[in-house]
Amino acid sequence: MKKADSPIDTGILLETGTNELELLEFYIEESAPEGEQPVRHHFGINVAKVMQVIETPNLEPPESAPHPSFLGTIPLREVILAVLDLSVWLEIDMPKTERDIVIVTEFSQSVTGFLVSGVTEIHRVGWREVIPPSGVIAKSTDAIVGLVDKEDRFIQLLDLETILSEFEDHDTDNVAVAEREYKAVVCDDSATIRMMVDANLKAANFRHRILNNGEEALKALLELKRVAEEEDRDITDFVDVVISDIEMPLMDGFTLTKNIKQDPVLGKLPVILYSSIITDELRHKGDSVGADHQISKPELNRIAEKAIQLIEGHTE
After folding, report:
1. Mean pLDDT, the chain, integer
2. How far apart are CA 227 and CA 193, in angstroms?
3. 137 φ/ψ angles, rounded to the nearest 5 degrees
């Protein structure tokens, strides 16, 4: 178990485009009837989003909380850390103890703490091992985007961006609009983010197809390539740009981009990657697989503008 108040440092450098990620496993305990052991629910998040783990600050939610899960704020280094009770969000009746911890995360240009029961270990897994959430899972929520089978338990992969999106305002008032209709292939495993991207692209005069992960997107692109070759047409008659999240089950955005750019036909298509983990320090990963542009998720409303610029620059 990771000691509280310690930074997360795995010492493992993942090569970009290998379709792998490092997963921090943690758990939330659910109250059980008297005399029975609490039920332990296992969850995971990308290690790249984790700064450190600290002891519980024992906060009580303020009356003016913007959401029932909001516990308040505490000073942490040079930031004021907002702390959310993840069990409230997931509708798990978690008994509070002095052993609880807060996972401090940094993504989407913000630092946030999530109260949980404890952490276990870090796993290196392939995105192909992440099972897309279909059917019934322990706690039904859009924030659970996949499952990892660890024999004696399932780790539920959480999309923390979906949770934080409840605290943000989203509008399409300032979206750039293309003078003519452009065609896009989009992939993202989060229903919430898909709706946001869909609204922005519609407002920008795009005709687009949205898929759930990189594997589905690559299959769709290869089919468009096949049709284009059969009809002796250019691939841009069918698609102008590919827009992809990075973290997805089965195939991530880095691997999708690598496959596109290595293909002699698809390689001419501009690719935009977006993610909450895109920072100046990590931007080189997208560059290494040939991404034409990378956008942090707080700036999703810029996707249409950047897509238009890439397409028009590409076709001039």
Report:
1. 86
2. 30
3. -120, 170
Alpha carbon distance 96, 116 (integer Å): 9
Q: Which stretch of DSSP H or E encloses residue 312?
A: helix 303-315
CA distance 4 to 26: 13
Domains of the chain: 6-165 (2.40.50.180), 169-315 (3.40.50.2300)
Who wins on pLDDT, 259 or 130?
259
Q: Please give the C-alpha separations between residue 153 and each of 138, 163, 195, in angstroms, as whole numbers.
A: 11, 24, 31
Euclidean distance between CA atoms 259 and 266, whole angstroms: 9
Q: Which residues of 217-249 are buried (b: 16+ CB within 10 A; e: fewer)?
A: bbebbeebbeebeeeeeebbebbbbbbbbbbbb
Q: What is the mean pLDDT of residues 144-160?
A: 89
Q: In what order do the strands lie in the sheet with 130-131?
A: 118-126, 20-30, 39-46, 154-158, 144-149, 130-131
C-alpha to C-alpha distances, 30 to 3, 27, 74, 97, 133, nearest whole angstrom? 22, 10, 26, 12, 21
Residues 166 and 89: their CA atoms lie apart, in Å, by: 11
Render pLDDT for 174-196 as a digit per residue (tens, 0 to 9).
678 888 999 999 999 888 788 88
Cβ 4 vs Cβ 57: under 8 Å: no
> Pseudo-torsion of CA 113, 50, 116, 153, nearest 10°?
160
**In this structure, which amino acid lies at residue 190?**
S
